[in-house]
Amino acid sequence: MSLTGESDKSGIDGGLMKSPDGVSRTTNSIAVPSVDDYIEKVVANKGQVVVPKTAVPDMGYFAYCLDNQGLLFGVAEENTEA
Questions:
Q1: How does pLDDT run across 5-59, given as a tens digit for each residue?
Q2: Lower CB density within 10 Å: C or N end of the chain?
Q3: Which residues of 19-31 are buried (b: 16+ CB within 10 A; e: fewer)?
Q4: Maximum separation of any 2 CA atoms in the chain, in Å
Q5: Separation of alpha carbons 50 and 68, rounded Å
Q6: CB burial class (10 A; 0-12, 13-18, 19+) of residue 75?
Q7: Domain 29-78 -> CATH class
Q8: Residues 6+ apart with CB under 8 A from 33
Q9: pTM of the predicted model as reported, rounded to 2 decimal places
Q10: At residue 54, what are phi and psi to the nearest 5 degrees?
């Protein structure tokens, strides 16, 4: 994980991990008020959840989805009680 701001303020934090299939890519994530609500919206619009809601302790929750055209993106919810 990479923390880019002060702990008491929102920032553009992130992380790096090895690609499981060796293909290089960037995945954009969108801050949302509720991962659960946005997962419902993705599915209702013919998208697919590929990584379910996951807690990141002291940070919040995230999930990865495919839109209805097959493009990967993430949704992230700030919640320090995760």
A1: 676 766 666 667 777 788 877 888 999 999 999 999 999 999 999 999 999 888 8
A2: N
A3: eeeeeeeeeeeee
A4: 38
A5: 13
A6: buried
A7: alpha beta
A8: 77
A9: 0.73
A10: -130, 135
